[in-house]
Amino acid sequence: MPIVVQLICDANCQDQQDLQKIYQDAPGWLFAPFGDATQLIAQCLEEGALIAARFNDRLLGAARLQRHQNAWRLSHLCVRNVTRRRGVAERLVSEARRMAAQNGAELHLLAPAGQLQAQALAAKLKMPLNES
Fold first, then answer.
1. Which of 44, 57, 110, 118 has the greatest number of CB atoms lying within 10 Å of its CB?
2. What predicted TM-score, i.e. pTM, was given to this entire model?
3. What are the pLDDT digits (tens) for 15-67?
């Protein structure tokens, strides 16, 4: 079964649990400007800005996708620790990039300044990186 990437507008109980598991091992800097995973998830759901990767009805990775006219910004990207290094983030980014292009926009990675993990991901995926 393939990894399915989708916008999550209404997270059921299982999705909420999966999202908490995704972000439980995330570094603290990933949550800014939010206080924690719960605030991040709630705000993204409220904005309709949560994109997630699903496999066998379980969420494995998620990110915030802010859609603007000319540029879409992908931030707060995280994959569950037990499923990292299996292409989940690349699949999520690839689908977000496709969605942005379909809407005439370019996809940018947004991360706090000086975060080497974000810089490495942007370089690997050949994406513009906006540091805040």
1. 44
2. 0.92
3. 999 999 999 989 988 998 999 999 999 999 999 999 999 999 999 999 999 99
Domain limits of the chain?
Answer: 4-131
Contact indicator for 52, 1 with CB cutoff of 8 Å: no
- Residue closest to 18 by CA, chosen among 78, 73, 74, 75: 78
Instruction: From the options 3.40.50.2300, 3.40.630.30, 3.90.470.20, 3.10.20.30, give the CATH code of 4-131.
Output: 3.40.630.30
* Among 51, 66, 43, CA closest to 15: 51
DSSP 60-119: EEEEEEEE-SSEEEEEEEEE-GGGTTSSHHHHHHHHHHHHHHHTT-EEEEEE-TT-HHHH
Question: In a 3-state reduction of DSSP, which class is residue 126?
Answer: coil
